[in-house]
Design brief:
The mean pLDDT is 93. The strands form 2 sheets. This protein has a two-stranded antiparallel sheet with strand order 1-4. It has a two-stranded antiparallel sheet with strand order 2-3. It is mainly α and 323 residues long. The chain has 11 helices and 4 strands. The longest helix is centred in the middle third of the chain and has 48 residues.
Amino acid sequence: MIALVTGYLMDLLTGDPHNIPHPVTGIGKLINLLTGHYKKKAEGETGRELRYGRLMVFIVCTFVVMSTTLVIAGCYKINIIPGMIAESILTCYILAARSLYTESIKVYNAIKLRDIEKARYDLSMIVGRDTGRLNEDGIIRAGVETVAENTSDGVLAPLLFLIIGGPVAGMLYKAVNTMDSMVGYKNEKFLYFGRAAAKLDDAANYVPSRISAMYIIISAYILRLFSKAYDGGSAYRIWRRDRYNHTSPNSAQTESAVAGALNIRLGGPSYYEGILVDKPFIGNDIRHIDVEDIKRSNLLMFISELLLLLSFMLPMVILIIIV
């Protein structure tokens, strides 16, 4: 519990340090290595690609669980203090609230400075769609969407896994999420090889994405007490209506909650690698989206994260006091 709270605070204060090795970067290198090796062996054969894709997922997950367990166990074997330090640092690495805020605020600042080209470039660092065609409203919409989606993928889902199984479960989740982001695409290259990674990511996020939506809705109700820019009732209604308006079974869960909370419309057609993808809209176009919605979506994310942590902490503290 102490390590969890310490790691949470470290993430809020510092985010991911850029001057020391990051374990997720190492996971990404392992995925690249295995993908290059097994894609070559598959030689474009559907059956082989499916089998080697499953094998890649198994190797990455096994390696991450074993290596994380060895690091934590080894540190605790030395002493409880090194063990708690290791847990805290890994927790900080697993959570991404500060990093998500930092990267999305770069887009916000560029728009405020009327530098649309820089805003497009900064946005391209955090989204998969083509940003060169986007106007100011499209940039803002994409920024809000990525904060909304990553409120689950990058913040609440990993926090939930940390609560359930500590850094081992948290790092396993990050590995699954990283595999999906690297090979889980429905394109010619990864349609079969990346299928196992994509399906495992869908399964891992099925419950967390829905829990995340609930916390966003609760956060909107709380923030409504301080600002009329938020609407908890609308967040719930739009979530109920639009939570499946996406090709992914999970992505629209949090996007719909945020769209409803801010009374804006997200989604819609977008270009990916030069191809127009006709995605459904999410939310109602009650008011015109503006750049402040990037900050508002981040505040929903931070409050949701705090509420989830408190949901775990308070019963534990009460239990400790009683015992």
